[in-house]
Design the sequence.
DNA sequence: CGGTCTCTTGACGGAGTTCAAAGCTAGTGG
DNA sequence: CCACTAGCTTTGAACTCCGTCAAGAGACCG
């Protein structure tokens, strides 16, 4: 059963007792085909997703209509527009499936009920957000102190599996540079 | 009593009952004078700080010895090297007082005990980390999609009080540009 | 008052962008 | 299954923003 992988993920971070398997009741399994959108900027969504299989990208669209990738998420990662989810605001991010994906979906009301009924989940999400803070801090440090080439090298080192599945165009957008620049950087690297 | 401001901060996010005021027992009041370091890169620290008064900067030092400011924190904010604190690693960030400051300090062991003894604090820190994720996401979006001028305008709009207390050199470092560039950007802005 | 640190200004150089064109790749429909 | 097309990647040339280096003016502290 697909839902099992979420349970395992939770158990990797906190201790569950037997009846806490009811946690899975708050979630629904959903499938999205490649290129479809889990969430679109400007819309209300109020769902968070736990990815069972496949890969998505989270991006913003700027005033000029350009897309900027914030993150790539795959198996055993949470994804969603957290601020929109928590604060009941319209989404500022869009989320698109890069591959066919299977996710567990939870809406905001169920999420609050779950936290209320199973206090151990407060700890689980405390740890989830804590880890998100770690990862984001690393990214911010790199954005203000690394050159584009250093950011690219760090990216392929940190996410060797993910790059196989993502176009360079999207990686360039993630790094904050143009596809042309990334192409030149890659050429420079393979030269050495 | 200084410790009161932490209690008020907690109560703004979660409900405390009377005996939960014992939470303050896990904390010590500490004073740091301007320019002194709460934490130095490469050292073990394992403390987190809640700022009662004053202002600090968090920064990293790169291979060339240049400092890059990650954040400025003042009254009623938590600050520390979270990753070092949680994972028992040496600090990758340094924290320096920009003004004379008063903080409440908690070490890792006390923090774990507090979370254990007062489960409501799991929720409190879940919310704290959640808010940190919001703020950092905004920063990442701006770093990959804004020009230096846009980042500066966004910074002074978001933190109008803080800029009064911080040198341009430090703001430039926060924005990921040189002091010279910031000086030119400011000149350009006042022209219009 | 002198020294250090900060801010400003100028000239130059370099990393990355923009625009354009050509080669490749992968998805689509016949 | 092949052919076609749209999108992706590469490459080139010109340009732009920002960094680097250097020098001078102003502010702060002992």
Sequence:
């Amino acid at each position: 059963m697909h839902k099992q992988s979420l349970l395992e993920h939770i158990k990797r971070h906190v201790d569950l007792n037997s009846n806490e398997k009811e946690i899975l009741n708050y979630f629904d399994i959903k499938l999205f085909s490649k290129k479809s959108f889990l969430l679109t900027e400007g819309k209300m969504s109020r769902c968070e997703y736990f990815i069972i299989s496949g890969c998505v990208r989270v991006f913003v669209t700027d005033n000029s209509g350009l897309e900027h990738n914030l993150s790539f998420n795959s198996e055993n990662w949470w994804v969603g527009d957290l601020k929109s989810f928590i604060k009941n605001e319209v989404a500022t991010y869009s989320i698109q499936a890069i591959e066919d994906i299977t996710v567990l979906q939870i809406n905001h009301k169920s999420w609050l009920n779950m936290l209320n009924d199973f206090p151990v989940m407060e700890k689980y999400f405390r740890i989830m957000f804590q880890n998100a803070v770690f990862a984001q801090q690393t990214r911010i440090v790199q954005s203000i102190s690394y050159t584009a080439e250093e950011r690219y090298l760090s990216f392929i080192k940190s996410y060797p599996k993910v790059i196989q599945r993502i176009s360079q165009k999207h990686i360039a957008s993630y790094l904050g540079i143009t596809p042309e620049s990334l192409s030149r950087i890659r050429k420079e690297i393979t030269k050495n």
Q: What stands out?
A: Residues 147-148, 177-178, 180-181, 184 of chain B lie near DNA strand D (CB under 10 Å from a C1').
